[in-house]
Structure formats: C-alpha cells, structure tokens
C-alpha cells in the first residue's frame, strides 16, 4: 500500500512539474506579439555600440515592470544594466545584447534596399537577442514566483558586443562575481547547440610620427611615417610564415599621409590578431609589437601603440550545452509559412553559397560535440573564462544567410527573425528552470569549467587603466 501511495504521489508530482514547465513556454507564447513589437522597435532604432540608449531602456523598463530590481551604469557604461529577481544561491544569469552594426541599413524585403544608405542596421540580429533573453527572464521569474523556487535570476543588458567589448568592462566592474552559471544564445541560420568556440582577439592601433618635408625638393630632410607603416606591414607579412597557421592577422592603414608631395609626418595602422588560445595570441601580439618597433627603427620615426580592444575565445561548457540541447529539441525549429518560404527563396538568390536547404530552419541540428572553432570573436568569451557559460544559436536567419549582411538585417526585422527569437526565448527559459531545480547540474558545470580552463587565469588584455571605448562608433573615429 505504502509503495502504491508513494507511486501515486510521484506521478501527480510529475504532472505538476510538467504543468509548471508548460507555463514557462506558454507565458512567452501568450506575449508573442508584444515581444515581436519590441524586437521590431529595437530593429527600427538600430543603435550602435554604447549609443543604445533607447534600446537598452526598452528592455530595462520591461524588466522593471515585471518586478526585477534594476542596477544601471554598470562599469560606468550608461547602456549597461542588470535586472535581478530573487535572492541567494544559485545565481543563474541570462545575457542580452542590443547593438546594431554600422552601414547595414536594410528594409524587410528580399532584395538589397537600404532604408537609409550607409546608416546602421541589425545585421547580427541583436534586436532579437536582447528581447528573447528578456522574455525568458520574465517567464522564469513568474515560474519561480508561482512555484516558490529560491535563488537569484539575473538578466545582463550588455552593450557594444560588436567591437566595443561591453562585457569586458562589466566583468572588470565585478558584475559577474557572484554568478554560478550563464546562459546565452545568438541569432543564426540554424537551431544548434555546439561545443564550438570562437577566436580570442587583440586589436590595436600603431601610430608613427616622422618629419614632414618637400617630397621632391628636400626628401633627405624628411622621415616618413608611412614608410614605418610599410616596414611594419612587410615584417608582419614575413612573420605569417612562422606563426601557428590557424592564427589570423588583418589590418588596414587608417592614415597614410595627406599628399604624395609631402613626406608623411604621421601614419597609422589598425591591426587585429586572433587565435583560439589567448596564451598563443599573446606571443603573436608581442611579435607584432616588434614588427612595429622595427618600422620605427628603420625609418627614424617614433612609434606609439594602443590596444583598442581584446576579447577571449569562448570556453564551452558541456553540462550546460547538454541542458540547452535537450530543451532546444523540446522546443523545435522554425517552420515557415508559404509567404515566409517565398521570402526565403527570393533572398537565397543573393547568397554566395546555397548549400543549406530552406527547410533546415524547421529542424534542430544534432549536438556538435567537436570542440571546433568559428572565425569570429565575441566578448561572451571573457565571461566564459570567469563563470561556466554556454550559448546556442536559433534560426532567425534564412539558412545560408551570410553573417553581418543586408540579408541578415532583413530577416531580423521580419517574421522569420521573430519566430527564431521565440525558439531562443523558450529554450533559455526551460534551461534556466532546469538549473534552478537541479543543483547537481550546476556542480557539474563548475567542475567542467575548472577542468577546461586548467591553469589559465582570466585577465583582460585591455590595459587596466583604459575604460570602455564609449565613443568608438562616433562618426569621426
Ligand atoms: Zn552578434
């Protein structure tokens, strides 16, 4: 009898848990139109890094109305904020981004048609990123409240992911120091959880100061800053042969002088180096600095260097990836209506490669267990070396859409993007709820994190006295 009684209790317990879990996704579905409108509003504003005043405030106020405690101006960044609900352990965090990219303005049509030529657009879908994460946080908060779940839920409003490194400065301010686990997602062209990483990046500007003179009348009196840039660039080109072959080095000359008949007194080169290991990248960067010193030495000019930005490679977390994968498979992919399908087919005509079928948006891809790497860099990497972190992608873009393109801006502003955003919101909500109810998974995530980072200690390569580059998107920069 007793056994039967216990069995009855546990079955009714399971039903109750299933109903609770259903509320996590049904509450997001119930507000689909509202969240869709928020994402379209942020898409319309298309505010670039550290200038996301309206976009950040829209998310912040939504969370505030839902009962979250707001902390603003994190790390001295006006558009960085946190929204916290509950108290005590565990502390489960969800990241949200909202910055746009310069020059990617585009209408929600499948042909190239900027709304305002040269103006910014949401070509990385961060308008969807921030709203999906906000929706997930609100749904988890309601679920915690209804089921008396204890712990702390925190949303991070993280600005300027695109080259401004907002998270680097939020982390430096100690904003993540009590966090146990971090969940995030990213807009993409497939629904997928992967153990893939990203590239650590150090970028900087090298400025050379020479001596101007008449390039024909008195060339011997001049010392060319442009020559220094050219020597440096040549040294970097020769160095490529002797650095790990999976390193990436790319640069532009941002100032090469004013006129051919004046020996340039000033020149500047802007250079990025990337590798999937920060210790290896440190070595490469030290050698790039030597190339710059060689340029100055050979041309009798003076060199100044500035590290403008640096982010770490993402350290994936297998236990968190497993939770996300399970829930992404429960939620499912993004099936298209006939209208969306014809949009997708038309958009696809502009893709350089058309090997991914449109139907794949409706599928969830198999878990990618290989620790591969992507060619990009993200400041989520910095967080992932401080706290167990994992992110996944949801199909907000038509399969095969190139990254950072007018095509991805178009998708992020219409129903295909919004449907992918809903998949992300529900997956995040279910996963956060799993973590609150499974302390064992959090312990596993921490053990995996310790093992994966080994002896490497996180320290940002952005100089400690250098604040967030709040004006890096100013037109004159
Ligand atoms: Zn992005």
Description:
- Helices cover 41% and strands 16% of the residues.
- The chain is α/β, with parallel strands linked by helices and 477 residues long.
- A hairpin with an 8-residue loop joins β1 (69-72) and β2.
- It is globular, with a radius of gyration of 25 Å.
- The N and C termini lie far apart (77 Å).
- Bound molecules: zinc ion.
- Zinc ion binds next to loops.
Layout of helices and strands:
Blueprint: H1 2-30, H2 32-45, H3 53-65, E1 69-72, E2 81-87, E3 91-96, H4 126-147, E4 151-157, H5 166-172, E5 181-188, E6 200-209, H6 225-239, E7 248-255, E8 266-275, H7 278-299, E9 302-311, H8 318-331, H9 338-348, H10 380-384, E10 389-395, H11 406-412, H12 415-437, H13 439-453
Strand content: 15-25%
DSSP E strands, number: 10
Poorly predicted parts: 1-12
The strands making up the biggest β-sheet line up spatially as 1-2-4-3-5-10
Instruction: Please state the average pLDDT score.
Output: 95
Structural class: alpha/beta
List the total number of helices. 13
| SSE arrangement, N to C | HHHEEEHEHEEHEEHEHHHEHHH
Distance between the termini: 77 Å
Q: Estimate percent helicity.
A: 40-55%
What characteristic shape results from the CA principal axes? globular
Rg, rounded, reads: 25 Å
* Main pleated sheet: 6 strands, mixed
Ligands, deduplicated: zinc ion
């Amino acid at each position: 009898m007793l056994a039967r009684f216990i069995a009855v209790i546990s079955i009714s317990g399971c039903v109750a848990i299933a109903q609770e879990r259903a509320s996590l996704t049904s509450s997001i579905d119930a507000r689909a139109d509202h969240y869709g409108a928020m994402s379209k509003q942020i898409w319309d504003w298309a505010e670039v890094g550290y200038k996301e005043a309206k976009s950040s405030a829209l998310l912040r106020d939504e969370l505030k109305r839902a009962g979250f405690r707001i902390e603003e101006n994190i790390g001295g960044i006006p558009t960085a904020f946190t929204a916290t609900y509950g108290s005590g352990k565990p502390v489960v965090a969800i990241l949200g981004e909202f910055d746009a990219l310069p020059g990617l303005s585009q209408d929600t049509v499948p042909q190239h048609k900027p709304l305002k030529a040269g103006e910014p657009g949401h070509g990385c879908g961060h308008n969807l990123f921030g709203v999906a994460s906000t929706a997930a946080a609100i749904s988890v908060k309601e679920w915690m409240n209804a089921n008396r779940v204890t712990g702390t839920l925190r949303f991070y409003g993280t600005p300027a992911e695109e080259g401004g490194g907002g998270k680097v400065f939020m982390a430096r301010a100690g904003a993540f120091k009590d966090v146990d686990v971090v969940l995030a997602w990213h807009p993409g062209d497939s629904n997928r959880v992967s153990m893939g990483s990203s590239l650590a990046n150090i970028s900087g500007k090298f400025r050379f100061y020479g001596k101007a003179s008449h390039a024909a009348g008195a060339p011997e009196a001049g010392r060319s800053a442009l020559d220094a840039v050219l020597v440096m660039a040549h040294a970097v080109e020769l160095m490529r042969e002797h650095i790990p072959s999976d390193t990436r080095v790319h640069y532009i000359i941002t100032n090469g002088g004013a006129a051919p008949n004046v020996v340039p007194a000033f020149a500047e080169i802007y250079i990025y180096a990337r590798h999937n290991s920060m210790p290896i990248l440190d070595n490469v960067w030290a050698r790039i600095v030597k190339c710059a010193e060689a340029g100055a030495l050979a041309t009798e000019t003076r060199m100044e260097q500035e590290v403008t930005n640096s982010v770490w490679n993402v350290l994936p977390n297998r236990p968190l990836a497993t939770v996300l994968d399970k829930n992404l498979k429960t939620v499912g992919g993004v099936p298209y209506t006939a209208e969306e399908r014809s949009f997708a087919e038309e958009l696809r005509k502009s893709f350089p490669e058309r090997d991914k079928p449109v139907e794949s948006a409706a599928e969830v891809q198999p878990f990618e267990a290989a620790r591969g790497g992507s060619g990009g860099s993200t400041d989520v990497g910095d967080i992932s070396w401080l706290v167990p972190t994992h992110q996944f992608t949801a199909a907000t873009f038509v399969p095969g859409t190139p990254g950072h393109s007018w095509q991805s801006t178009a998708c992020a502003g219409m129903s295909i993007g919004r449907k992918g955003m809903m998949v992300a919101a529900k997956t995040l909500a279910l996963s956060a709820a799993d973590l609150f109810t499974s302390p064992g998974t959090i312990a596993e995530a921490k053990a995996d994190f310790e093992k994966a980072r080994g002896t490497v200690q996180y320290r940002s390569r952005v100089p400690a006295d250098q604040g967030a580059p709040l004006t890096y998107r100013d037109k004159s920069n």
